[in-house]
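Bug: token stream looks shifted between consecutive jobs. Job 1:
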Amino acid sequence: MPEPQLFAAWTASILEKVHGAFADVVEKEGRIVAVLGAHEDVDVQAHCQPDGVVSLKGLAVSGFRIVHLPRVWDDPERRKAEKDPHDEFDRLARTFKTTLDEGTKSVSELATWIQYSPPAAGAKPIEPWFEGLPEDGDNDGGPETIN
């Protein structure tokens, strides 16, 4: 698990991106009159091995956005008055895809930060978890990719 300072900076950057994608509040005269989108904090899932080593297992952020749907589709006059939801669905899908792509990139950056951050004081070294990783510092100095 990363040190709190590292994890806090990463979490703040994720929540900023998520807030832009999910949060939508309507205010009138300084009062909230509608919440059309919101999100929760980052949920971290971890795994503890029998030897006490804790590893990151998963990350999740829950949220919602409200999409207004027409009330009456079979009335031609009402259909003209109601807004077509296709543009709103398209915008919502593009927002979610962009946010998911940014989140995936951020998780990759977190993995790099964890890999190259110095260990906590008093931490015991562990064996590499993946075959083929250098054990004695015999590498080319570049980031590693595991496919």
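Job 2, same session, no restart:
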Amino acid sequence: MSAKFRLLMALSLAMLASACGKDDNAVTSTAPSPETSLSPQAAPGSESASESVPEMLPPITMFDINDIPVTNADIGEFPHFMPPKGYRYTTDLLDTLDESKSIRESARTLYAIGVDRIHLVEGRTLKVTLYNEKAKDAYKPDLALVQRHYEDAITAAGGVRVFNERPEAEETRGALAPKRDSSRPESTLSRRQVYVIHKQDGEVWFDVDCNGGRCVLIVTEKK
């Protein structure tokens, strides 16, 4: 199993495990998800980490936010950026946005920072699907438009892209992504992009995932 496939599987499992809900008491009363069972202090390879992390999960890697320049740009209130024109945010499997399901006031989320490296970020988290208003379908996004929208907005605000991968078709069949169509223009092929903005009072992570026939945005604000 290739490193890239293991990474995509791990991130997809992490996304599925982060069931959204604002009630922290309700979260703690249930069995912990893979994110909540991971400790940010646990060093990769330690006993506690190995007990909590599935075998297919790549090592959780420390990330030095000081390597990213601090920006004073005003990025507005959480989740900081609006969807591109003609799109709106919806909750997974719904045609509307249910904030009680799409926003968690405190959650642990895995972000890719390399082909075989992930980083655990804890904070207020949003997970939404981009719904194409014109097509009236979440599964018909303009991939290039969506990706360019967030790249332009985030980098203009001083953000830095830390992951940018286009998985190979043979590694992404099944639930992760549709089989690559070699006849499609290179600019429209799906990819996963991760960005971070370093603010004076914290950091904001963005995962733009267009690998499953739709585009999903995950935002985590770490104070």
